[in-house]
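Appendix B: complex inputs.
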Amino acid sequence: MGMMRRSIINLFSRPYTSKYPKVKAQLPEGNRGRVEWNMEDCIFCMLCQKNCPTVAIATDKAGGTQSITRNRCLACSRCVEVCPKKCIRMVPEYSEPVLLPEVHVYVIGMKKWDYKVERIDTKTRWR
Amino acid sequence: MPRTSIIPFGPQHPAFLEPLHLKLQLEEERVVGVEPSLGYNHRGMEYAMEKDWKRNFFLSERVCGICSFHHSTTYSQAMEAMTGTQAPERARLIRIIMLEVQRVTSHTLALGHMAEAMGYENLFMQFFREREEFMRVANEVSGNRVHYCMNWLGGVRRDIAPELAKSIEQRMDATQGRLEELAKVVRKDSTWLKRTKGVGVLSKRQAETWAVVGPVARASGLSYDVRQSGNAAYAMDGTKFKPVWREEGDTWARCMVRMDETLQSVALIRQGLGLLREGPIESKFKGNPTGEGFSRDEAPRGELMYWVKANGTSSLDRVKVRTPAFMNIPPLGEMLMNEQFANVPVIVVSVDPCICCTDR
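Resulting structure:
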């Protein structure tokens, strides 16, 4: 009897699901998404690179760049924790699905939280 | 002499979510022999864990997606036992709350999968709707939906804000009613009863012989739950806890134990939120650990054990994981014996075999 009652209620109520690509997903405030650098404050201490469990971060001290392989990052926010200058932050939204592995490169001299996108050819081995 | 035929069941089968292979020996429609075989999902996790003890807090979660937090908590507790670090009370309570949230998501997935295996798609959807509420709670607290990435040596990395605790408590009240409605279906619905009652019986004696753990053991009359005692004693943190157990030992009893545990977990989440007091969530530890550490915990499928041996460097000597599904799959031979072939998916799913855990 319980299921019959539930079925009748469901028949006359709105769908529980949302039409995802059209309607944006409601992500909570603390959602772990993308990692971003503020290159104005970065001192290239390499702590984020050393502590990254999936080796997604590559710090180039000579070239003045921080790059992160998006598809490798597992959003553990360990880099945010260890940063002594607190110049790394995590934003709630996810990056969009891509066909080729994507690398976000942060170069010194860029504006706050600004980055450029590079793609890795899948034929070459990832770092 | 009756002729027997051999039917391969799995590793790719619509009733299974994961690759498990059963070699069934049939006499007409009756099962007379079972030979389970595993290893289709082996990834060498134990070896990978020896590389870096810090990475393991995230790697151990990847052993299994449905009980990820149980894995990382047990690993953290083993490391804490090794180094003699005591996690603060608030951290332990946050762990309990998140463990119970994950237990609800796992049990509702198991019950929904069970409904799907017997062709009850409507009920499957109902279970998954309730599951979504707990997935959202996990997302709000930890930031992730499946792999929480919350544990560290000596505590947790995410705190539960007072406003969030209040909102979770309110939502628990709303979900409780809906879950009780679903419990009524599992208890009384004729479709459900016809497929599960008296099917795949595992007696108490057999359960003891095969040393089954978790809901499978508790459905067969063994009131064994790691949450009562051991390293992860819940009573130590002030929560009131009594294991759910039944005596029937059939598929229905296993489902009922899961359903009642879901309701119990909601009560435990509420208790845990009520007991939260201001304080630190992490005690610091520096350097590399040495020695041996052991811990166990009640994962949704049963007792989970971690044994870790460290050598004072960043790598570990050995990590041994014993997962609950590893103990629960072998007695399938006893449960399936003399059953109809059509009941095989229902019985196998009622054990809730997690191949990811078993093969690791």
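The mean pLDDT of chain A is 82.
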